[in-house]
What does this fold into?
Amino acid sequence: MSDLKITALHKYYGEVHAVKGVDLEIPAGEFTVLVGQSGCGKSTLLRTIAGLETADAGTIEIGGEVVNDHAPRDRDIAMVFQNYALYPYMKVYENIAFGLRARRTPRAEIDAKVRKAAQMLAIDHLLERYPRQLSGGQLQRVAIGRAVVRNARLYLFDEPLSNLDAQLRDEMRGEIKRLHQDLGKTMIYVTHDQIEAMTMADRIVLLREGRIEQQGAPLDLYERPATRYVAGFLGSPTMNFIDASLERGNDALNVRLCDGTSLALPMARTAKLAGREGQRVVLGVRPEHMSRALAGDTRSGLVRYEARIDLVQPTGARTYATFRMGDTEAVAELLAHDVSQPGERIGLAIDMNRVILIDPGSDAVIG
Amino acid sequence: MKAAHRNRLKLAVRLAAATLITLLFLFPIYWLFMISFKTPDEIFSYPPKWWPAQLQFSSYAVLFRDGDATTVLNSLIVAGTSTVLAMFIGTLCAYSIARFRTGGDNLANWIISQRMVPPIAVVFPIFLLYVWLGLVDTFPGLILLYTAFNLPYVIWMMRGYILDIPIALEEAALVDGYTRWQMLWKVVFPMSRAGLFATAIFTFVFAWNEFLFALVLTRTEVTTYTVQVTHYFGGQSNFWSKISAMSVLGTLPIFIIVGFMQRYLVRGFSLGAVKG
Amino acid sequence: MTASQADLVLRAGARPGGGRHDRRFKYALVAPSIFVLLLIGVFPLVYLLVVSFQNITMTDMDKTFQGLLNYRLLVQDTRMWEALLHTVIFTAVALPIELLLGLAMAQLFIDRLPGRQVFIALLVLPVVVSPIVAGATWSLMFNTRFGPINQIIGWFAGEEVNILWTINPSLVYPAILAAEIWQWTPFMFLLLLAALSGVDKSQLEAAAIDGAGYWRSFFKLVLPAIWPVMAVAILIRGLDLFRLFDIVWALTKGGPGTMTETISIFAYVKGFQQFETSYTAAVALMIIVLLTVVVLLALKRVQLAR
It folds into this structure.
């Protein structure tokens, strides 16, 4: 059974069409991440689910019931806000108990639930403090605790980690994911951070300009993006896009770059591209699918590309090497010592099994 | 060394100027207060005495004996009740305007323009209405007018304070199971406590110090202290002790209150234009 | 507007009126205030309008329609024009003086000064005194024989002086203005001090490094920076001065004769001492119309609403 079903949802702010016909169904117990650039409508969508905005068209069903006209409090949801939204005049204990008090829960039950939630989030020693006495990470735990004590059907997270520094963010990411595993509740999580989306989601819903661009399991989206936008959005460093054209080679289909290089596609990939010979395409190569070419490497699908490295950025385990490929700058993710100096000329092996080809007219991935 | 020397001299000059100006502005208040502690002989001595030989409370004793001092109580009732009323309905209205933009810019502008209508133009028809309704010289009459008179100010100020509240705090309460009305009490009022407090004090002081409405709408029953002070005006100067004592009774509470709310003064005086 | 701008608007606090419940809620909240404001904001207006077309006086309850009778009388009434003139004079003299004095004082207190907070707290006291008490205080100050002002002047003159401050036609204006300026200069001071402390110091330092003198950086940098606050202060004080009543009432009651009668005092005398009801209604209406025009023009220029 699905916990949340959205059908043909539209939302306007005055002239601005923020959500343009979203259909979405989320099965019970799933962790869904709504991801996209700022202004893509992801927060609006979440707020409309919560009832903080009203839908202008379409329906929202929670647990099989249409809730369009329900106030937020009648939607059986709990929400974690970006800026914590903790009450500065209440102690941590009261902040967590706030939602339970609204529902006239017996005192003893409140106490038990608050303490259990606090223990789960390792904030039981902070219950008697005020929010202003806590650090950012602790505040975030309290904010999550306030949602967790509520036995809601749907848990909504609106960019909850965006105010934390990088290290805390990593830590809290794991924490929230573990929470999801322990509670088994349906959670919807909004973020603009593709790494958060990749690491946390059971399913990613990628939004663009008020529409769903693509949805699916994180690795599905990563490996089989439907559009150039999705391919470029996920992954860091971002995928390289090189203008090219398809042409029939001696025995296979080649991707020909504007500098004259021809890269042969594996046989397995040619079937889908039948009839596209001579057409312009955009070649999409992820940086990690390029490596230093080794003599005697006979794995199929690897093609060699001679590159002159312009910029070297070591990160420790890996080194990012920037070079010119066709008419654009491309980045390859190499092993730490594969390249040492700018100006070096090296042979790169491109894994043509993993590249994607995009139709420049429609931006759709064609193969 | 020379620069340091010059700086110290500059500071000394500024300090002297500041002291002089402050004394200049305080002197009339000193004079008013001092007169109330003088004996009649001292008040009418020539040349005037710059301070009383010893503090005399006879002027105050007279006011309390004659019951004139109860006008301060009337001021308290009128200013206090109207403040509570104006704060309550004004804050609700301010919330609606701040969060829902109820009535748009037109309503907001109309409300603030109400603040700027001269009292004399309002009090005249109100007086005629009150005569008809039998509200002249009654507490409800004066309280209603002060409430109405202070409303635009309350709405305007509280709108500003409410806009300062992070909206997510309110949304969190709505999601957590509170109705909007409950949320007002659980979140909005506690969050704007400082603003409520500051605005209430300004409202109170306006009503407390108001003279024209009270002059027109009271006779004997609900005379406020400002009107009472003018009862001692008259060609004869023999009411001076009463004028000053009555003024001090009315002014001292304000001074004490203002002493506690220094940090809200700028925002309050500037109709919120300066956040202070 | 793009979607991200819409997000910003949203976060800035504009909540578009949502569902049915919200709509009922938001109107319920404004209802009591609107009711009270209509009662004293609109009722009087309508009432004034009706009465001003009748001819009700102390002796005559003539409720028949008199057309523009009262407005004709109004235009011909030299006493009214004089009262209006007096009001304008008070405003035109007091406002700039309060502004400049307040600005000078703010400049004096803007930098670090020992006991700064205490000075400011004390300087603000005149503002919160009831204007009627302020008037009473200054009538004590100006008393011919027992007041300190004549006494101090006497020291400088070296002989006893008997200046009739509130009676002598050439001195009564300075006397009232002194009281008015005493009470409200601290108001200007407080607001301008706040505005000045909001001026970006690094800009001034940059200007000093570029060789700009004190006056140049004051006019080019400081004045534009404090102008918004200054404009609000001028608007508030201007409107207050236009309704000037209490201080004049306490000091002269508009006298000698009608020399210091302001428009508020004039209306008060007409309405509550001479009981020229219909005529006063016309006067009050004229004041409202006059002020409304001024306020609307001013509000357009002053960004009170941010």
